[in-house]
Amino acid sequence: MEEMAQSTKTIFILAGQSNMSGRGGVIKDSHNNQKLWDRVVPLECQPHPSILRLSAKLKWEQSIEQIHADIDTKKVCGVGPGMSFANAVKDRINGAVGLVPCAVGGTAIKEWARGEELYENMVKRARESVKDGGEIKGLLWFQGESDTSTQIEANAYGGNMEKLIENVREDLGLPSLPIIQVAIASGLDDNYMEKVREAQLNINLPNVACVDAKGLDLNEDHLHLATESQVKLGKMLADAYLKHFAASP
Predict the structure, then answer these.
(1) Which tens digits make up the pLDDT trace of 83-116?
(2) Catalytic amino acids?
(3) CATH code of the domain made up of 9-244
(4) DSSP string covering the chain
C-alpha cells in the first residue's frame, strides 16, 4: 500500500451531505431499534487495488465500503456513489484513483462556507491528498436537502453554491477545478426542493456540470438513495467526468 500511495493518483474530492457519504443499504434493526448497514456491496462497488481513499488520519489506504465511515461518524454510513464512480473511471485514467471523502450528513450549505469547520477540513484534506504526488481532478458535490426547509434558504442556495465553487478553487489554487454537482432527489419541502434543484441545474460557471438524481429510487425514509440508485449515480457522475473533463486517450 505504501508503494501505491507514492504512485500517480487522479484525485477526487467527495463532499456534501448524507447522500454523498452514503445511506444505501442502511436499515433499521427491529430488535434494538437502531440503524445498521446491511453490508451488501454491489459488483460495481467492489474494492480494487487501484482505488484508494484518504482516511480521517490523512493516510492513503485501499478504498472499501463504507468509505465515509470515519468521516461522517455521527450516523451509520452505507453505500454512496464514490466506489461506483471510481470503478467506472479507473480504466480511463493514469495511475490510481484517489478518493477524498469529506461529506457529513445533515449539513446545510452555510456550514460549507469558507471559515466553517466542514469547509476548512475539506480544504485541509484536499491539500494533504497531493503531498506525496497526484493531482486533484474534480470535486463531486451532493448536498442541498438540508436547504429545503425554508424559502430563505432555498432562495439563497444558488449564490451560496457559486461562492463555494469560487472559494474552493481559489483556496486550492485550481481556478479551473471541475465541479460535478448532483441535483437533489429529495428534500424536506417539495416546493423549496424544486427551488434548490432549479439553482443546481442552472449554475452557469465554467467547468461545472450537473447530473440529476431525480427519479432514482429512495430508501423507505424517502430521503436517501437506495443502494442500486447510488450505483447508478456513481456511473452518472463518471459519465459526466469522462464526457466533460477527462483528457482524450
Answers:
(1) 999 999 999 998 999 999 999 999 999 999 999 9
(2) 18, 221, 224
(3) 3.40.50.1110
(4) -HHHHTS-EEEEEEEESHHHH--BTEEEETTTTEEEE-----GGG---TTEEEE-TTS-EEE--S-TTTTTSTTS---B-SHHHHHHHHGGGSSSEEEEEE---TT--GGGGSTTSHHHHHHHHHHHHHTTTS-EEEEEEEE--GGG-SSHHHHHHHHHHHHHHHHHHHHHHT-TT--EEEEE-S--SSHHHHHHHHHHHHT---TTEEEEE-TTS-B-TTSSSB-HHHHHHHHHHHHHHHHHHTSPP-
